[in-house]
Amino acid sequence: MKLTNQENNQFLQHLTGILHTKETALMKHCIQHGRISTYDHILSVAKLSFYLNRRLHLGADEKELVRGAFLHDFYLYDWHKNGYIGRLHGLHHPTIALENASKRYRLTPVERNIIESHMWPLTLFHIPKCRAAWIVCIADKICSAYEVAAHTKSLRL
Fold it and tell me: Quick one: 118 exposed, middle or buried, by C-beta within 10 A (0-12, 13-18, 19+)?
């Protein structure tokens, strides 16, 4: 799976204003799965979501899809450090990510649903309600499974 140069440019254009910030720099130092940073994880999820939407002609709005996917784990802490036990991280981090993203960016209802529901069915009452949220929910699980199994690198598209 690989994006064309034109697709990669379009993908990056959707992240204008959120890709190079102090928060994303922080996420490069927070571990997500194995040795994968939160930044590498969210970039993989966003790219896979974009790729699936394009290749399978799923019809989700690309900008909302990519922005929501990139912000889905915008919780801004390393859940492996500072005494955070992490047992309930999976349940709580979507709400924390949504609060953080809402403070910094103007989010559409679709982007809000993507962030809030990406851990479904673990977060039972936060169900994906739109096509983009379903795509990100599935892409997140694919990337997470790969990262946990590989322990060394993110899914490069």
Answer: buried
CB atoms within 10 A of CB 117: 24
Q: How many other C-beta atoms can be found within 10 angstroms of the C-beta atom of residue 37?
A: 18
Residues 14/45/150/8 CA torsion (nearest 10 deg): -30
Dihedral angle over CA of 79, 31, 144, 55, nearest 10: 130
Distances (CA, A) of 114 to 82, 130, 141, 153: 28, 8, 13, 24
- The whole-angstrom separation of Cα 138 and Cα 141 is 5
Residue 83 has pLDDT above 80, yes or no: no
Which pLDDT tens digit goes with each residue over 47-81?
999 999 999 999 999 999 999 999 998 876 665 56
How far, CA to CA in Å, does 127 sit from each of 3, 9, 20, 75, 119? 29, 31, 30, 19, 9
